[in-house]
């Protein structure tokens, strides 16, 4: 197996990205860890590193334009509002959306909770007054209705639906996972009682790319809402909300080269206009009296209080950065990294890779186990070599149970990841059998 020794060089047939230039954009990648070892950061699935343009965008907002957006008539307030709304447009452009259909939240977890609590509030008397009856019927979910998710969901797209069903009396069902880390679509419990189908675009553990078109078609056939967790797809794949056909889509800024503390919920405009708000207070109102209030149109309807303006500006910069790389190029680079990692790990029969063996249906991450060695111990050995990975259940306990493992070690990638870093990771991994005396 030929390795890629230069961390700034990728083979021409593997990627169109200029990795040397890209890596120079990320200040943290130049640092050392663990007594001077070069940082090999393979934990981007948990949180990605930030390019200088994102850091500078946040700093510039605080230094030059800091004010409460959508409030005040002074120049700083106007500049802050313009920067905030420009960021919304930049994020929308990345996913092929209209700006008014993009809601800023603090993370994808809040985005998904916004949907579940909004649907819960739809059951309150008068909550859907004036809403088109056909839309209102889709939003009212209660006893006898079913919510379908998958067994591979991150807890952020599992626990909120568990709580939603507890509050409303709906029944939670799920699509099981096959041993190869793909969904068992033949056993999908989607039927006439299904009112919501919520699923991940890409598994945060095994990197499986789920068949969105097929799942959305099955949801539409029974009139169910479709809710997509796109946290692991927006940073790695071209994502267009029109092409996907889903009703709601959620993702986080910190996984797509953007700041922490900012997330996105996209929704179909007719659904956002009908969905009751999750949080109430200032900024999201239309008219307030002592007796009652009416609410602003989306997206402001769902952005109560002073929003996270600087983080939004940083996310706008991250969206432009990714768009500048070209998401087709990013996806090709990611696939090359996954392919190369699978090839290197296949040379080590003592490593069990979780998930599909076909890199064409994988994205962003490779998780694995080593029999007789706890993932935390694997992670420690890698960390001693300067290689940062994630260990544990990755907020996906049910998926690990389905795969019959208690936990795993995960290497996850970003546009700045190099083939030489994969080599460094594999070289460090080779210390595990030596340290633990495995018979390999």
From TrEMBL:
GO terms for biological process: cysteine metabolic process. Residues 40-126, 140-425 form the Aminotransferase class V domain. It comes from Branchiibius hedensis. Pfam families: Aminotran_5. Catalyzes the removal of elemental sulfur and selenium atoms from L-cysteine, L-cystine, L-selenocysteine, and L-selenocystine to produce L-alanine. It catalyses: (sulfur carrier)-H + L-cysteine = (sulfur carrier)-SH + L-alanine. It is an enzyme of class 2 (transferase). Keywords: Lyase, Pyridoxal phosphate, Transferase. Its cofactor is pyridoxal 5'-phosphate. One of its GO terms (molecular function) is cysteine desulfurase activity. This is Cysteine desulfurase. The keyword Transferase applies. Its EC number is 2.8.1.7. Belongs to the class-V pyridoxal-phosphate-dependent aminotransferase family. Csd subfamily.
């Amino acid at each position: 197996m030929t390795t890629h020794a230069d961390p700034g060089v990728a083979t021409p047939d593997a990627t169109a990205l200029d990795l040397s230039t890209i890596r120079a954009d990320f200040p943290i990648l130049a640092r050392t860890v663990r007594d001077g070892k070069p940082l090999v950061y393979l934990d981007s699935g948990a949180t990605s590193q930030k390019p200088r343009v994102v850091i500078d965008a946040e700093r510039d907002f605080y230094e030059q334009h800091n004010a409460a957006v959508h409030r005040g008539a002074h120049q700083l307030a106007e500049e802050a509002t313009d920067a905030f709304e420009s960021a919304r447009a930049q994020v929308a452009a990345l996913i092929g959306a209209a700006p008014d259909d993009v809601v800023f939240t603090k993370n994808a977890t809040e985005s998904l909770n916004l949907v579940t609590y909004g649907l819960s509030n739809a059951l309150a008397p008068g909550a859907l007054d004036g809403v088109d009856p056909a839309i209102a019927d889709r939003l009212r979910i209660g006893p006898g209705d079913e919510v379908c998710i998958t067994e591979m969901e991150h807890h952020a797209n599992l626990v909120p639906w568990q709580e939603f069903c507890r509050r409303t009396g709906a029944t939670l069902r799920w699509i099981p996972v096959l041993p190869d880390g793909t969904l068992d679509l033949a056993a999908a419990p989607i039927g006439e009682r299904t009112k919501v189908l919520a699923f991940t675009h890409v598994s945060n553990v095994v990197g499986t790319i789920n068949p969105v078109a097929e799942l959305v078609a099955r949801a539409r056939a029974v009139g169910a809402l479709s809710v997509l967790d796109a946290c692991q797809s927006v940073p790695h794949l071209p994502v267009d909300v029109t092409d996907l056909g889903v009703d709601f889509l959620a993702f986080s800024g910190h996984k797509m080269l953007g700041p922490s503390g900012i997330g996105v919920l996209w929704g179909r405009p007719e659904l956002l206009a009908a969905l009751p708000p999750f949080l109430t207070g200032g900024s999201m109102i239309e008219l307030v009296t002592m007796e009652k209030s009416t609410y602003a149109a989306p997206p402001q309807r769902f952005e109560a209080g002073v929003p996270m303006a600087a983080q939004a500006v940083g996310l706008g910069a991250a969206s432009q950065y990714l768009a500048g790389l070209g998401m087709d190029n990013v996806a090709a680079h990611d696939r090359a990294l996954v392919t190369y990692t699978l090839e290197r790990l296949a040379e080590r029969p003592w490593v069990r890779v979780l998930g599909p063996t076909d890199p064409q249906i994988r994205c962003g991450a490779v998780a694995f186990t080593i029999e007789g060695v706890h993932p935390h111990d694997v992670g420690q050995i890698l960390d001693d070599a300067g290689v940062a990975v994630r260990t544990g259940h990755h907020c996906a306990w049910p998926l690990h149970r389905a795969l019959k493992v208690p936990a795993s070690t995960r290497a996850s990638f970003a546009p700045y990841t190099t083939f030489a870093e994969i080599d460094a990771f594999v070289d460090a991994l080779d210390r595990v059998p030596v340290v633990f005396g495995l018979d390999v």
